[in-house]
Design brief:
Blueprint: H1 3-11, E1 17-22, E2 24-37, E3 44-57, H2 58-68, E4 71-79, H3 82-94, E5 97-104, E6 110-117, E7 120-127, H4 135-148, E8 154-158, H5 167-180, E9 184-187, E10 201-202, H6 206-213, H7 220-234, E11 238-242, E12 248-252, E13 257-260, H8 273-286, H9 291-305, H10 316-325, H11 330-333, H12 337-349, E14 354-359, H13 366-376, E15 381-387, H14 389-396, H15 405-413, E16 420-424, H16 430-436, E17 440-444, H17 455-460, E18 464-468, H18 476-486
Parallel strand pairs: 1-4, 1-8, 2-6, 4-5, 8-9, 9-10, 10-11, 14-15, 14-17, 15-16, 17-18
Antiparallel strand pairs: 2-3, 6-7, 11-12, 12-13
Helix pairs in contact: 1-10, 2-8, 4-5, 6-7, 8-9, 9-10
Length: about 500
């Protein structure tokens, strides 16, 4: 995930219109300490020191989107009770639009009370309704969705099985969104995912995936089997399975699978992590990222969210800071062939797609950087095969390179878009490609596919070649010619 891309996305957030449809609730936290056992029963006595009331369920999804800077609306049904009025008031105070929230007499607005002591949850108390909407209120919500949904860039469906997402409500969302070509992202619940047919992507966790597919997930093969069953059952374009400490895996209808390793953090509380994933995934898609890029952003944000206690939001500053912290020194990126082969084998086993490109990169310029950034976006990590000094001399003549191999390697390794640099002495990277077996082989647009060294090898195991155009007028030769034209020997210090 490129920092500049994410910063650009955040700069456009205020123009993104997001609709969250689903079950609203209040999350109440009672924070205290426990130092004694009750004389009335063998239970701990909690001395409450602080109380906190937060938006839960679909409200937490909306709050995450708001924290990113988006325009947010919510469509749901709550009760005509004190909790319902408190919920609407809190949403309005935050600036979340509540025109799509209906209140049904006799319905109980959900409120979950969690009692915590020493940062540990002791008990949770749920007060809520779970019955489906009445026919009249169901129709009112469907009418609102039918007339208003077209005004949004993305729709998020947050299902907590509290009765709001009836069959008719879901069909209205899916059909209207399909007609308007609006992406719909769903955090699903229950065992029958056919009700979500028409969604762009579902985001179940591992346990939910097992329950809905009927397949216990024990390895990559059973994960693939479970995903295939769900995608066939729901006629899904995409499925993003969140797998806790094992990261996320994105399955696409074209057969492509992308694994996203977890971001290592100390986990305090997974409450609301699914809401964060849904919000960031939708935010990325609405902002123009590919689904794979959006999933990487969601994975990063989820790693931040689980480091907090209770339902919480993740801010742009936290995401940018985390991205900055992942930058590595250039020394750690420069590997010899044997070491890099072992590393890539491990990355491939995790399901990560390796992109490979090569070149001399003498006098690095903007054209090189844009080319490398574009290459990195094609997969999960980018490996650069760098011609050694002796190799460059054989290709370019005795006066090249202008910059030595060690210096060139460090300059290139300092780029965020490059994950590893490996020097090679041969005139072509054929041996390096054979050893690393990348999924995607990239060369400049001045090549034809047939002229790319290593094409046959990569395609033999199901990989592919991608050609990326260079920036016009940007080349090392052009820079050298300008220097010679503008300066004489006497003028050079």
């Amino acid at each position: 995930m490129d920092r500049k891309t994410v910063e650009s996305l955040f700069s456009r957030a205020s123009s993104l219109r997001c609709l969250v449809v689903g079950d609203l609730m209040l999350d109440e936290y009672l924070w205290g300490k426990t130092e004694r056992i009750s004389p009335e029963a063998p239970v701990q006595v909690v001395d409450v020191l602080r109380e906190d009331l937060r938006l839960g369920g679909a409200g937490n999804v909306a709050n995450n989107l708001l924290a990113l800077g988006c325009q947010v609306s919510v469509a749901s049904v709550i009760g005509q009770d004190e909790n319902g009025w408190t919920l609407v008031k809190n949403l309005n105070q935050l600036g979340i639009m509540t025109d799509g929230i209906l209140q049904e007499p006799g319905r109980r607005t959900g409120r979950k009370t969690r009692v915590l002591a020493a940062n540990q949850q002791i008990v949770r108390i749920d007060r809520e309704s779970r019955e489906p909407l009445s026919p009249a209120i169901d129709k009112q919500l469907c009418d609102w969705l039918h007339h208003q949904l077209a005004g949004f860039d993305v729709v998020l469906v947050s299902d907590y099985l509290k009765g709001v997402l009836t069959h008719q409500v879901l069909r209205t969302v899916m059909n209207t969104a399909q007609q308007r070509r609006i992406p719909v992202l769903v955090d699903p619940k229950g065992n029958d995912y056919r009700k979500y047919r028409g969604a762009t992507c579902l985001t179940p966790n591992r346990k939910e995936t097992e329950a809905a597919s009927g397949i216990p997930i024990r390895c990559q093969a059973t994960l693939q089997e479970a995903a295939s069953i769900l995608m066939s059952m729901v006629e899904l374009e995409n499925l993003l399975v969140t797998r806790s400490e094992e990261g996320m895996t994105l399955f696409s209808g074209n057969g492509e699978t992308v694994h996203i390793p977890t971001v290592a953090r100390e986990v305090f509380d997974v409450t609301g992590a699914g809401d964060t994933v849904l919000a960031l995934l939708a935010f990325g898609v609405a902002g123009g990222l590919s689904l794979a890029e959006a999933a990487r952003l969601a994975n990063l944000a989820a790693g931040i969210a689980v480091g907090k206690l209770g339902t919480s939001v993740v801010t742009p500053a936290e995401i940018i800071d985390t991205l900055a912290a992942t930058h590595r020194d250039s020394d750690s990126k420069i590997k010899n062939r044997d070491a890099l082969t072992a590393i890539i084998e491990q990355e491939r086993a995790k399901g990560r797609q390796v992109v490979f490109t090569n070149g001399c990169f003498d006098l690095l310029h903007a054209g090189h950087v844009k080319y490398l950034q574009a290459a990195r976006r094609l997969g999960d990590l980018l490996v650069l095969g760098l011609n050694s000094d002796s190799s460059v001399r054989r290709l370019k003549g005795p006066k090249r390179p202008l910059i030595g191999e060690e210096e060139r390697a460090h300059i290139l390794a300092a780029l965020d878009c490059i994950d590893y640099v490996c020097l090679f002495d041969e005139e072509t990277p054929l041996e390096l490609i054979s050893a690393l077996r990348p999924k995607i082989l990239v060369k400049g647009g001045d090549y034809t596919p047939e002229g790319v060294v290593g094409k046959d090898i990569v395609e033999s195991y199901g990989g592919r070649v991608e050609l990326i155009p260079f920036v016009d007028g940007k080349s090392t030769t052009t820079i050298i010619e300008k220097v010679l034209e503008r300066y004489t020997t006497a003028e050079i210090d």
